Amino acid sequence: MCEVAVCDRALLAGAPRIFATSLDELAALPVTPARTLILENKEGLHALPELPATVAVHGGGYAVHELADVPWLAASDVVYWGDLDTHGFAILDRLRGRLPHVRSLLMDRGTVERWRDLAVPEASPAPHTPAHLTGPERDALAVVRTEGLRLEQERIPWPYVVAHLEAL
């Protein structure tokens, strides 16, 4: 099941703002957002504000690549926001392997450095060597891997997140 947040209610009038659906039903939704946000964690999905022309989807962890088969999603500006840990970058890498145009949100070294005090040790780092990360993403991954950090996306202060979402 996929959890969905319709951040612009005009895109899917009459639908609940947040709902769960199968991947097949998700693909069949009559929606054409300009932007699709994919989030690693459900807490952020549920807290999203109204965002013009935007639909958000919970990525489903390592199953995130399955979202590439959703035609309306693949045709939109796709932005992925995951945890700043080795698994978050492995998931982004997997998604970008299927959707090369995916951009990331708050998955850079500056975010790691700014909110380092909110990170915890990463107990089981992913051994994955990514092939599809940008330079800033690789820099952030190097920091979290070297220092054994895990900065979960929901730990980043929400006003900071919302400012970056609105800047998209």
Low-confidence stretches: none
Quaternary structure:
single chain
Strand residue percentage: 15-25%
Radius of gyration: 15 Å
Q: What proportion of the residues is helical, as a percent range?
A: 25-40%
Task: Give the biggest beta sheet.
Answer: 6 strands, mixed
Mean pLDDT: 96
Number of H/I helices: 7
Molecular structure report:
With 168 residues, the protein is α/β, with parallel strands linked by helices. It has seven helices and eight strands, in the order E-E-H-E-H-E-H-E-H-E-H-E-H-E-H. Strand 5, helix 4 and strand 6 (103-104) form a beta-alpha-beta unit.
Topology:
Elements: E1 2-6, E2 18-21, H1 23-28, E3 35-39, H2 42-47, E4 54-58, H3 71-74, E5 77-81, H4 86-98, E6 103-104, H5 109-114, E7 120-121, H6 135-147, E8 149-150, H7 158-167
Parallel strand pairs: 3-4, 3-5, 5-6
Antiparallel strand pairs: 1-2, 1-4, 7-8
